[in-house]
Design goal:
By secondary structure, this protein is α+β, with helices and mostly antiparallel strands. The protein has helices at about 1-20, 35-45, 65-70, 90-100, 120-135, 165, 170-180, 180-190; strands at about 25-35, 50-55, 75-85, 115, 145-150, 155. A six-stranded mixed β-sheet has the order 5-4-1-3-2-6, with helices on one face.
Length: about 200
Amino acid sequence: MKSRIGIVLVLCLIVAAAAFAAPANRATAVFAGGCFWCEETAFEGVPGVVAVISGYTGGQVPNPTYEQVSSGVTGHAESVQVIYDPSKIGYEKLLDIFWHNIDHCQANGKFCSAIFFKDEGERKAAEASKARLESDARFKGKIVTQIVPASTFYPAEEYHQDFYKKNPVRYHTYRTGCGRDARLKEIWGEAAGGHK
């Protein structure tokens, strides 16, 4: 009887460990596109996207706080880390979503736009996507989005994660008040992001 209980416990542990193990088919992409609350919603719910984490990257101060980043002294940009399954969505599609949800003509400290590449493949894909946009006469010479090597990504404080779900009234008031959706519509027309 004791051996059967032991076997059952071992099998339960194996099943539990497998359930909690990180799947092999996961990759991450990091983008800065202005306010991370708004950028997070661009990727949430997209098939193949597993999670989106608001945070900070590109600066010099380890483990920065929102207040530090907001002050402009850390060099960090508000950004999102997109965790995705590359067998269901490609990096190029994530780039397309990114471009259609930012003002790529705005260069403004913590609200700058940037693509943070982890390897040569991501760098080439990002550069090619930017070149495609620059071939459009509307955007030629106007794109200020940086394409830079990824550095440490620091998740933002918990209250920033899924802010649009936790505080929808404040989120929508902010999003409407800042003019983001109107600007995206001006840039992209019907192809504009900003669906949430």
